[in-house]
Specification:
disordered C terminus, 325 residues, Rhopdopsin 7-helix transmembrane proteins, two-stranded antiparallel ribbon, 5% strand, mainly alpha, 3-stranded mixed sheet
Length: 325
Amino acid sequence: MRNADRNKTDIIFILLGFSDYPELQIPLFLVFLVIYIITVTGNLGMIVIIRINPKLHTPMYFFLSHLSFIDFCYSTAITPKLLQILVVEDRTISFTPCIMQYSFAVICVVTEAFLLAVMAYDRFVAICNPLLYIVVMSQKRCALLMTAVYTWGIISSSVFIYSLLIRSFSKTNIINNFLCEYSAIVSVSFPDQRIVETIFIILANFNTFLTLTIVLTSYVFIFVTILKIQSVSGRYKAFSTCASHLTGVTIFFGIILFLYCVPSSKTSWLLIRVSTVFYTVVVPMLNPLIYSLRNNDVKETITKLMDLAVGCHNGWGFGPGLSRH
């Protein structure tokens, strides 16, 4: 064991990914490549749009810009390696890159969970206490909330990372997944660290159920407030301000709870991999689409940017004295 601990730089993990479906390797590569391009473009584009449009300089879009940043980081930590193992026969990853990939992923997941809870609180204040919204969700308080979210994400994830670093591994380890995920890494490690595992379970459940409690409590008050609104148009307008966030929350926490419920057996590995793909690759792509397609200010900014781009292209390509052939 001591020898294994000293030589962790020699430890390698083999990511099986979807190697048991060789005929799907290239199609999956193309699909995931398109998804990754959309994810990067969508999330970075959302950040740019929020920055350049003064109408979007509000607490809700301040938090949304950070959500886009987290989704970009999350996808970038996972998808490039997934694309690589789909087209390259060498599916190995050494110990340090594997732990780093997991570190970035778990920081993003924990941070996003608490950020979604903060965004639910923001919608609660906006709908239930609109007259106090500017005071309660001041620029300083928003910055403090985001600092707390990032800080807890790093602190919480450090416990998970430490629980992996103190384990020992064989020189070659096979992971039946396409990423360095906690349960998959633990399954090939030794010895059994019951205390550390207990701490992990407690902390993971604490993060999940605390954020879920904040979200559900916020929306209970929101729905009660909406039902008290007399006019139908007023109810629709109030509900539409949180519909996108509610959709994103449902997808995010729905998949987390589903993965918690999937038993860790050989027959469930394919289901786990498919769920993990949706959770790690697809959801970061969906978030900017969910929040942009229902928002007129965002769509208006996108239209202006596209018109500007077309105008610049026409100006550079077919300026005075130039003609089309």
